[in-house]
Design goal:
single chain; mainly beta; 11-stranded antiparallel sheet; 1 helix; 11 strands; 67% strand
Length: 180
Amino acid sequence: VDLQAIINAKFIKTQDEFGEKSAPQIDFVASISPQGLSLESGVTLKDLYGKILLQGSMRNGKPKAWGIIQMSNIEVHKLAKIHNFSSNFYFDGNSITLHDILADMYNGQVMAEITLDLDTTKIELKTKIANIDLRKYSRDTAYAEKEIGGYLDFDLLLQGHLNEIQKVWGEGVLTLRKAQ
């Protein structure tokens, strides 16, 4: 992993009404370039190639960060191979949002937005997937022994709490089309 970072930290010598010193003020800019990286955190991500551009700050003990994720390849263990992934992200210390997510997957396109509230563990996922080639998908995944054909489109909204996964609910439209 290639990591380049610029960190600028300032410690302001002021005191609040209780005589406590203020928290440091930190600004940072970072560029992370994974080249074949693998991550294991419940779901295995393999063959990560791309770049993450990150900018942020810490003010009064509260972090904020924003940036862009661009990955040419991501393999989600036995589930999907994703290409040309891009997303903007924002972190405000309480929540993380990945928005304007775009990716290519099995000759189709993925568009999505994900928001996770770190305090309440509430998650919301909005996604639209169009024109997924099921034959190509079945060859590359755990379903390789099955012969599947056709195309998949779906719109999906999921909401719930990560610590109560059984209460996550969703609604959407799924369309299966025959191969031409």
